[in-house]
Amino acid sequence: MHSKAIILPLQELHACGHLSIAGGGFCFAWTVDHLFSASDTGVGKLQLAEKTVCFHAMSKIADDIKFALWLLLLSGSSSCFGSDPDVQCLKTVQESVIDPNGMLKSSWIFENNTAGFICRFTGVECWHPDENRVLSLRLSNLGLQGQFPQGLENCTSMTGLDLSSNNFSGPIPSNIAWQLSSLTFLDLSYNKFSGELPIGISNITYLNTLNLQHNQLSGRIPSQFALLPRLQEFNVADNQLSGAIPPALQRFPSSNFVGNQGLCGPPLHDCGGRSKRKLRLHRINDESSIGAAAGFVVGFVMAFYFPHLFVFSQNLHPYVFRI
Questions:
Q1: Least enclosed by CB within 10 Å: which of 1, 12, 83, 268?
Q2: Looking at residue 23, what is its pLDDT?
Q3: Are residues 133 and 266 located together in one domain of the fold?
Q4: ∠ CA(90), CA(206), CA(253), 5° rounding?
Q5: Which domain holds residue 323?
Q6: Is 221 contained in some domain?
Q7: In angstroms, rounded to a whole number, what is the distance separating the alpha carbons of residues 193 and 238?
């Protein structure tokens, strides 16, 4: 049986929800989550969730699948690669946070389905103004509350997240690297995030900036943060962190670590240095006190039993004596 010729106008893609190849004969329903990942090249991920793909009159289904995927890639359709997941990403973020000032509610209106409509939302930056593909979310100082926003994993091409100067609380998700694997910029400063620093942050390998200052984070700074080769800015000042600063992070200024009473090591004071200095001072004071007391006792005894040994002079200080 020979394969029939395939004609696939791009307008029949129907926003990747249903792909139909004319010819009749066979329909293959396929549900796929992460179809492939190209994150190692910095390109991002192609994600089709719960999509149905139909193939007709082909002798080799595997070849049909490859051919259809090639057509999807060739089309370069932004609706295939960004629209559905990124719109769903923002919907979930809006639903998962508390917005007492209505900043997101008044701006993030999803009734419009035109290309690039989400790019006009407050705090949303897109890769291109005519496509619904999020480049970064900058939601600083909007009075937002609640825990870390949900649904961010659907913004698969997002490289920047700024939640600073809000009232977010609770832990930073342990699976943050899975949600935000392509980030280069993460700013969670001036919130109320608590708990330990997730080791998973070390898997966000493209991270250049990590700002966590002025929260309520506790525990140690994971040594795995040394696995962030592109890290240029790192700030954890004004938290409740403790332990030694990992050697790979000691290149950052001391101002980026201050405000953590239990934190030590360069560029701050040496671990145990303060307690050792205090111990030495106590020993010196104790020894000085003992020496002074012993000298007083000896002088008193000698003055009492050998008064003829003391010579007083008006030209000298009183109480000068010879032995």
A1: 1
A2: 36
A3: yes
A4: 110
A5: 272-323
A6: yes
A7: 12
Beta-carbon count within 10 A of 60 CB: 11
What is the structure's pLDDT at 273? 57
For residue 264, what are the CA distances in angstroms to 56, 182, 220, 244? 66, 31, 10, 5
H/E/C letters for each residue in 246-262? CHHHCCCCHHHCCCCCE
Which residues lie below 8 Å from residue 184, measured CB to CB, with a gap of 6+? Answer: 159, 160, 206, 207, 208, 209, 230
Q: What is the pTM of this model?
A: 0.63
Residues 173 and 193 in one domain: yes
Report the percent of the chain where pLDDT is more than 70.
Answer: 59
3-state DSSP of 160-179: EEECCCCEEEEECCCCHHHH
* CA separation for the pair 14, 80 (Å, rounded): 9
Cβ of 48: how many Cβ atoms within 10 Å?
Answer: 21
Residues 182 and 286: their CA atoms lie apart, in Å, by 60
CB-based contacts of 271: which residues, under 8 Å, 6+ apart?
244, 264, 265
Q: Which residue matches tokens 């995030």?
A: 193
- pLDDT for residue 129 is more than 80: yes
Q: Provide the pLDDT confidence category of residue 62 given band limits of 50, 70 and 90.
A: low
Whether residue 268 is predicted with pLDDT greater than 90 in this model: the reply is yes
275 CB-near residues (< 8 Å, 6+ apart): none
- What residues contact residue 105 under an 8 Å CB cut-off, 6+ apart? 94, 99
Whether residue 3 is contained in a domain is answered as no
Residues 178 and 310 occupy one common structural domain? no
C-alpha radius of gyration, the chain, whole number: 34
pLDDT in tens, 139-184: 999 999 999 999 999 999 999 999 999 999 999 999 999 999 999 9
